[in-house]
Amino acid sequence: MKTKLNYTLLLAFFALLTFSSCQDEVIEITEPNSEETFQADSNLAALISDASINDGSDDNIIDGANELSVNLPITVIANGMEITVNSEEDFDLIEETFDAYEDDSDELEIQFPITVTLSDHTEVVVNSEAELNDLRDDDLNEEDDDIECIDFQYPITFSTYSTNFQIINVITINSDRELYRFINGLEAGV
Predict the structure, then answer these.
(1) Alpha-carbon distances of 52 from 5, 15, 29, 154, rounded to whole Å
(2) CA 41 centroid distance within chain
(3) Could you please report the per-residue DSSP string of 71-117?
(4) Residue 3, CB-side half-sphere exposure with 13 Å CA sphere
(5) Which tops the pLDDT comparison, 160 or 109?
(6) What band does 112 get if pLDDT is binned at 50, 70 and 90?
(7) How much is the pTM?
């Protein structure tokens, strides 16, 4: 009898607890002001764009330009020795070849055609040294805008909203190229 009374009291206690613990949830939607939203013409968008520019400085021993990079693999002739460059580690082979003799004139001949990637991630097929020189000349007239001290860890997800702050689309970015195009697409209204 005492056990039945304890169970009854325990059941009554939980029933009371259940009814008294319910509360109405209030959903408050506060529309952000323009300073809290990501604007295409904002300083943040410009910085993200600059951080996602193609940095072409790693292969300067081949192309001599910061604003473009050579797509690998390529074949070069460094001081008369043919080197197939399959990865960035192979840049050291060119450097070692140049450093082998101090009194020689270091010469590098690129076997064309090659494909290069510009700072805006556009790929261009280059068929001659003259075409590469034209791209280098264009590079000399441009400021080196890329931000090299920041690397994004991908994937990054962005949600785009309508004017009523309803989610229109969720976009997943997997590379600097995709991020650059996304940010600059916002600026273009795409």
Answers:
(1) 71, 58, 33, 12
(2) 19
(3) PSPEEEEETTEEEEE-SGGGHHHHHHHHHT-TTSPP-EEE-S-EEEE
(4) 0
(5) 109
(6) very high
(7) 0.68
